[in-house]
Predict the 3D structure of the following.
Amino acid sequence: MPNIFVTTPDGEEHTIAAELGLSLMEAIVQKGLPMEAICGGCLSCATCHVHVDPEQFDLFEPKSEDEEDMLDLATNVVNESRLSCQLKIEERHEELRVTIAEE
Ligand code: FES
């Protein structure tokens, strides 16, 4: 299980051991960190928005058009923005760093 470093909007860093095959959103929510993920991963809310460490951004598959469209509706969007329900945890994500975006 890769260890992932998640910074919450209040600036606190948490280390979570994320189960392989889960989405990053599921791993974050399972650990009780503050993420609404209102739609449960259906790509219809953008409340699972994270900023991925710029140096690790390429560790994920590129965004789909639907994810791009949903991010257009989000606030605080940066180049490294992703919707974490669309990011599947794999071995290569050991020591991934992400920040939960402020709404
Ligand atoms: S949980 Fe709604 S878009 Fe990711």
Summary: The chain has one domain: 3-100.
